[in-house]
Design goal:
The protein is an all-alpha fold. 65% of the residues lie in helices and 0% in strands. It folds into 2 domains: 58 residues; 41 residues, no CATH class.
């Protein structure tokens, strides 16, 4: 009797050597190539995530450095470069350049100075 399993239609012929034995070297090479491709893909993903994580860490460290450097300045020194103490966090996080209210405050400061 024949067993009609779903794998019957997907079976392929076993590769054999000239003497009729199963060609184990062929299957070892294929398995090695498959493992190599898989590991290459995994390592590539890990490396990509690692670089992304390093970029985030570097950005945080740069923000902390900027925050520390600006925090030691006096209110007068900050005013000389056009900043207020409340701007330090926005500068450190990178949001300062895109803050529309900052532009409005800058224009008001310029008007008050004139």
């Amino acid at each position: 009797m024949h067993n009609n399993s779903p794998h019957d239609s997907q079976q392929t012929e076993i590769r054999r050597t000239a003497s009729g034995a199963i060609d184990t070297d062929y299957y070892h090479r294929r398995a090695r190539a498959e493992r190599s491709d898989f590991l290459r893909a995994v390592l590539s993903c890990i490396a990509c995530c690692g670089w992304r994580a390093w970029g985030c860490i570097k950005k945080i460290m740069e923000g902390q450095s900027a925050r520390q450097q600006l925090s030691v300045l006096s209110a007068r020194e900050l005013k000389d470069i056009g900043l207020a103490r409340s701007d330090i966090d926005a500068i450190a996080s990178g949001a300062y350049a895109t803050d529309e209210t900052r532009c409005v405050r800058s224009r008001e400061r310029l008007r008050n100075c004139a």
